[in-house]
Amino acid sequence: MVSKQLDRVGGKVRVIARIRGFSGPEANLEPDTSRTVDWISVNDENLDDVSISFRDHPSRYLVDYCYKEDEDSEMIYSREVKPFVSAAFEGHNSTVIAHGARGSGKTHIIQGSAERPGLAVLAIAEFLPIAEKNGKSISVSFYEVDHQERAMDLLNPEKPPILVFEDRGRNQFKGLSQVPVKSVNEFQNLYSTACLSLKGAPKKGGQRSHMGLIVNVVSRNESVGSTVSKMNFVDLAGYEDTRKKSSDGSCLTEINKINKSIYALLNICHALRTNESHIPYRESKLTRILQDSLRGTSRILLVSCLNPSFCQDTIYMVSLASRSCHRIHHQTFLDSTKKSVSSANMRQIPKNVSGTAKKFHGSSKLTKGRKLFDEASHSTPKVEKEMVTKASKPLMDNSLPETGNHDNSGVETIVNTLALTNVSFPKDDLFAKASQDMKLYPPLENGDSSLNASSEVEINSLAAKDVLVDGDEGKKENTPCINHSSESMSIIVHEGHNSPPISSQLRDLSNSLKMLCSSTSSCLQNSEKQPIPAIEPKTPIIQQNMSQWDEMNGKSPWETFSMRGSGMKSSIVQEYLRFLNTADKEELKRLKGIGDKRANFILELREESPEPFKSLNDLKDIGLSAKQIKGMMKKEVGELFSEL
Ligand SMILES: Nc1ncnc2c1ncn2[C@@H]1O[C@H](COP(=O)(O)OP(=O)(O)OP(=O)(O)O)[C@@H](O)[C@H]1O
Description:
Elements: H1 2-8, E1 13-19, H2 31-34, E2 37-44, E3 47-54, E4 60-63, E5 65-67, H3 73-88, E6 94-100, H4 106-110, H5 119-133, E7 136-145, E8 151-153, E9 163-167, E10 170-174, E11 179-181, H6 184-197, E12 210-219, E13 227-235, H7 252-273, H8 285-290, E14 299-306, H9 312-322, H10 343-347, H11 355-361, H12 368-378, H13 382-399, H14 409-420, H15 427-440, H16 450-453, E15 468-469, E16 480-484, E17 489-493, H17 502-525, H18 546-553, H19 557-582, H20 585-588, H21 596-608, H22 626-640
Parallel strand pairs: 1-5, 1-14, 6-13, 6-14, 15-16
Antiparallel strand pairs: 2-3, 3-4, 7-8, 7-11, 7-12, 9-10, 12-13, 16-17
Helix pairs in contact: 1-3, 3-5, 11-12, 12-15, 13-15, 14-15, 17-19
The protein binds adenosine-5'-triphosphate (ATP).
């Protein structure tokens, strides 16, 4: 019975769109002229899809269904979400994800308001009586994932970040409250409390973190916390193109990181919907948290929230969601007179990648950007590819920055490199898709340290940055590099720091420190102004004459010494943290206080997030007290001077 209901809501991943109603000042506008999004039903043979188009925009995007402004959350709930509730009592997990541009109505559809309850509230109203009847209970958890990939408990925000473990195929959360609910009222109060704790709470620039809710169906008969199944609701942060100048001066690096985690989740939906063999669950904290509610028999509802008036970010988001609907059809707007899209034409797109594409896919380290690149370039028949290329250009042109922020040289390098492989594509196609991928994976901002942290993941940002074809000796540090051969192509990022063992890193620092001490004392004793040689590559690099520097800054030698000493201290801490984030098990065990168990734990944490240790405080996550941390540092630093 339940399975039948689930069949009605489609396959594993269902993609629907929802056009937001006009609100606030928009409501005073004439809807017919300001409304730019339109849709038509594609009721052809077995297809019941909907094609979405935007005024003055050449592309159409297919989704499984589109709800108009006048179709309320209750209708969406009963048609799309209700079957998940019944399925939860049979042990099936599910996930409802709202994504879209800023202000597109994501919170409205998930949480709603007092007058118009959202999908989560409607689900709880249904969960409670069924649970009562079946001897089960309902408990809820609220969490937030911020741009630093930190997950925090929103019902107890003082707690340290949430840790995710896998135990017999199920996710376990350390540090996430699970609160029983007995009424809708109680639930709404908890929801309000969670919203108040949200650090990325809606500001002028919109919600800047992802908010998640887990509804647990708990068995009353068994031990406490024996969850039968769960249903997740995810209110994603609003997508924003960082290449547009942010009007509220928000930190672009922050937005970039948030966008990356949106892509990670959409990539999973795409991979699941297209039956890919590798599902990249570990690419972000959010996908790790949701992992056991995305795989297996779980169902996913992806709700693409659309702003009713023109919004380039909305078009981009729906294009991403619709890419897994396979039947994306592009046509010029000249003949967009609400004609049905030719399904025969759409079905031309094969689901399986070609042999050559498989060759391309051969590397297990294939990255997100590459996958998209491959798909567009390989799996689309020529006719369709030409359409894609033509259709992509206006979108691309619209969205590329006017400033020199993004030159096309990166794209051209990719295109040229691909042209050197044995895959023959029209160069234009590659150019268009590479540019699109640049948009999909915007480059990191200058100084974004995550480029160093994870070479494979970060490749998506390669397009607009310095792209280096193998053999270019000029720039090796932190530079994405394409290796190509006639057989395959792999893309790697040269990491700026190859993380030598901590002993040698600390030795370098020690040398710097000794050099600094001796030069400082010689400055104190000797007024002769000899410039101090730069010490490569240790930190900090001292280029100035100390006495001049002191005079310039009006500091006494002692103040200078203390200040530099504290700079050294923080450098040592950074090296130490970097070691914890990169060393292998045996190396880790060389540290005081790290035994077999803690070393394993550190490796587990690194599985969840590529850089779990950002400050010494994070060592508390592996069970060390503040006193123990201090002791460890003292010992490591003390050893530096053991050979003085
Ligand atoms: N279907 C709708 N009908 C009428 N008004 C709506 C609808 N959906 C959203 N709104 C209104 O639009 C505004 C923005 O909605 P909402 O806060 O849900 O957007 P959001 O996508 O969650 O924003 P953010 O990007 O900040 O996360 C709110 O004032 C909300 O009340």
